[in-house]
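Take a look at the protein record below and flag anything odd:
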Amino acid sequence: MQKHIIIIGGGFGGINICKGLANDPNFKVTLVDKNNYNFFPPLIYQVATGFIESSNISYPFRKLFHGWDNIHFRQGELTKILPEENKIVLDNGELNYDFLVIATGTETNYFGMENVRKNAIPLKTLSNALAMRNFMLGQIEKASIADDENTKRKLTTIVIAGGGPTGVEVSGMLAEMKKYRLEKVYPELKGKLGDIYLVDAAPVLLPPMHPASQKYTLETLVKMGVNVRLNMLVKDFINDAVIFGNGESIETGMLLWAAGVTVKTIDGIPTESIGKAKRIMVDEFNKVIHTKNIFAIGDVCIQTTDKNFPNGHPQVAQVALQQGTNLAKNFKSQYKDKKKETFSYYDKGSMAIIGRNKAVAELPKPKINFHGFFAWMTWIFVHLLFLISTRNRIKTLYNWMVAYFTKDQSLRMIIKPSDPLTP
């Protein structure tokens, strides 16, 4: 008898489950997502800075599922789970399931700072990226017609909060924009552009990486003109000034927030199933503890049964990808009464791009860290490989080649949609 699996979230993990169960007659799979497209989060910042188009890193679910007869898409947002009824409630209806998979990922964490939440620009979704591009270009346009130099500098000063891969990559990208493009495009701002600041409460950049990678990243960003301020905890953002815990402040027209993530609470998940940092606790098969047929994968869950990661896995794409693949196999095994496989994460390494011909990369086995041009090429290859379609890969590579050889790009458009019509 065909089993109905509902997957909430069409990110890395959710898509891998769909791939693993595609055209299997024993399962009907419904993927639910509030957007009607999948997107590639590691390149969000390149959309935000105008280096690539949003369509380069996004792809419609219904187009992706074409030819997978048992995979279906439902646009909607989860509001509640009713475990005793094997039912979910969406903002536009209800669905019944035999198995439910939560793969919703994380959302931006503002650490309770309301002014930061209201006024900073997050870098988490495709909508965030387009909003950042519009706002940043709008600020630069305002600066170009401002009467005094102080206003010009404040409007074009950018503070990036968060010294992880996103913060490092966007600050490097902005530094190159400032060096190679902005003064040519905006001659009114020649010699009057504000500074770029990368701030973090930690004492190092890229905390999970090797000290050699951290040192190279810091030195490279400083040479590129980025003001790196470590051990600086953001406390508030008010009256166009970022306020730090030590009393210092930076006047700016733009605060980009890449300082942390959190898990959104889901109504219907037992409170005793919620663990550290609000992540959903799962067993070795990714089943949510204290439930019988609800599973969670990726950033939203915490699994402490993996002997190599007793405190839980890092919230990175590879965990979601591997958990999605493993769970799809286990659904098939369970249907055929075969033994299921416990999940064990294989760390493939980490990397971050800093700028043109500059990146850091690390491989765990053998333990190697390297940087510079070779790391930069490796970063490009890996990110192209993980884009979801051939179309995405070709378009992204083309944009990168144009930007590399011309040190320019032509995507500096402010496109703001009008109020949407009510259907």
About this structure: Residues 64 and 416 are 27 Å apart (CA to CA).
